[in-house]
Amino acid sequence: MPKSIIVTGAAGFLGSHLCDYLLGEGATVIGVDNLCTGNRRNLDHLKNEPRFNFVEQDICTPFDLGAVDYVFNFASPASPVDYSRLGVETLQVGSAGTLNTLEIARKYGAGYLHASTSECYGDPEVHPQVETYWGNVNPVGPRSVYDEAKRFSEAAVMAYHKYHKVNTHLVRIFNTYGPRLQSNDGRVISNFMMQALRGEPLTVYGKGSQTRSFCFVSDLIEGIVRLSRSNEALPVNIGNPVEWTILECAHEVLSVTGSKAKIDFRELPTDDPTRRRPDISKAKRLLDWEPKVSLREGLEKSLSFFQDYVASEKSQAAN
Ligand code: NAD
Ligand code: UDP
């Protein structure tokens, strides 16, 4: 169990949950973030935690916070809305940011885990997606700033493993949700939950027949921590293999929230992947991991977070 850990992207959705998990195990954690999509609010509960320090830092600029045992690299805009708005920044964080954090791991002999993504598979022609599939990414399409940055990151991580003998790990994360998702980052679960609770129509893109497989955040973090302690350097899928159409997902959100909101069909974004489901045989075999939380349970666990958000919007509007 490493003692001193850097988590980049700590003020974001996944990074903040990872910090909580590591602190809960007794580690000392330095959270690094430039707050471009994250929020200090996600770390408010750690204000009085002596084993946690926050450093506001853009990881695209080289930095050195002293000797550490492990680096978890989670910094990057992550939703299609965010990475479309921050296209060049996304390419920079996936290239310079990844190299800078790998340098820290090399310098201090630390372990390293990079948050990669199912987007490396693009609009996949192999279903479900297995780690040995190389993907189908449009290198000049609207999603390319994210997909290609993440693919570059994977190459950089493998190079540091090969040439500098850094103990590296690559997790390919499939759509994950839970409390602390940004309410306005355009991702499907946050959009649907906010819309349902506001009583606004749920915006389903296309016919809603495209599929995704949704993993609850606690399952994901457990898988990631297990991977960080394994000997596997090649990519490992972590996600929930239960596949939902987006229209089915909209109905599940309506049912969990008890909302009577309507469904509003909108144009399907360019290059939106048609199907996505992880093959998690490798994670099961190597890490003895599989998700435990169903979409319904996960949405129920997330409900109060989104209800609080909508309530605070209402009280702000009233003032
Ligand atoms: P998020 O936007 O909530 O968190 C990302 C954090 O990184 C933010 O706090 C942001 O401010 C920070 N950041 C971005 N650029 C930075 C930079 N240059 N320097 C320092 N900090 C920077 O997103 P998330 O969902 O928590 O995603 C975390 C990581 O997991 C990302 O790398 C993302 O690509 C990956 N991932 C997430 C999902 C998912 O479903 N949530 C799926 C696949 C991969
Ligand atoms: N989506 C939708 N309505 C929304 C937001 C997203 O129908 O309000 C769809 C989107 O077109 C995609 C899926 O939901 O097919 C997942 O989108 P998200 O942005 O959450 O993640 P990603 O496309 O990166 O998997």
Short description:
This protein is of the alpha/beta class. Helices cover 40% and strands 17% of the residues.
Give your account of this protein's structure.
Its main location: Golgi. By secondary structure, the protein is of the alpha/beta class. The chain has a domain at 4-177 and 216-238: Rossmann fold. The protein has nine helices and 13 strands. It has helices at residues 13-24, 80-85, 87-108, 144-164, 188-198, 217-228, 246-257, 281-287, 295-318; strands spanning 4-8, 28-33, 52-56, 70-73, 111-117, 168-173, 176-177, 202-205, 211-213, 215-216, 236-238, 243-245, 263-266. The strands form four sheets. The chain has a seven-stranded parallel sheet with strand order 3-2-1-4-5-6-11, with helices on both faces. Strands 7-10 form a two-stranded parallel ribbon. A two-stranded parallel ribbon has the order 8-13. The longest helix is centred in the C-terminal third of the chain and has 24 residues, at 295-318. It is globular, with a radius of gyration of 19 Å. The relative contact order is 0.13. The model has no long low-confidence stretch (mean pLDDT 97). Nicotinamide-adenine-dinucleotide (NAD) is lined by residues 8-9, 11-15, 33-38, 58-60, 74-78, 93, 97, 115, 117, 173, 175-176, 182. Uridine-5'-diphosphate is lined by residues 79-80, 175, 186-188, 191, 203-205, 210, 212, 246, 269, 272.
